[in-house]
Amino acid sequence: MPYDAIILAGGQSNSELRKIAPYDNEALIIIGNYPMIYYVYQALRKCSLVRNIVISGPVEALRTIFAREENIYFASGGDNAVESFSKAVEVLREKGISSNLLVMPTDIPFITTEAIEDFIRQCKKYRADFFYPVTSKEVNEARFPGVSRTYVNLREGVFTGGNLFIIKESIVNRGLDVAVKLVERRKNPLALAKLFGLGLVWKYLTRQLTITSIEKKFYQVTGLKGKAIISPYAEVGVDVDKPSDLELANQYLAGISF
Hints:
Helices cover 42% and strands 21% of the residues. The protein has eleven helices and eleven strands.
């Protein structure tokens, strides 16, 4: 079953990144020999299960970067990630959208085809509306020692969230309002717990929270069946949103040539 992919490239570069990389849009920041978004695109393009790719962001600049590529489409970026996602979905619907959408931001240049394909393979084992990867602190520290991440203590271990997800096309419209709230709280575990009620807050504070209990509460609150996928690839979670991250990306990716 093929997947259509969306890259969210509408994000404005924050003030700290702009001091060392003078680009208004983070997708255009040069890492090694290429704009940051090109690493994400290449990882997607090599994935055998990905059909069409839509990039939502600064269209004219993106057309220049990807002038030689095929089966790639563009949508203007929105005021936030959810609006950019919605515009990309509209483009895909005009082209004949598949039933599964793979969505990721532009600021994860470490992402690899292997990590994407592993995530998809794991998702295929379950029936759900929405799939989201998490990685353990051990995996992240082994791959990227010392990189700062937001971790959550769960009964199963210490985890951090990933930066991509799979969503069923049939529930996109219902899921947009939920997505807005999740995006706003994505880097604040306590705020996320509050979104789903005081019971989850208490379990979080007492370290009794489990992945299963989060999934059950997610369904009760949203009516959508979500599934967390434990990924063995730290690349799904490490993003570039501060100068130290950009320095790390240049160290890891400087020698890559496509």
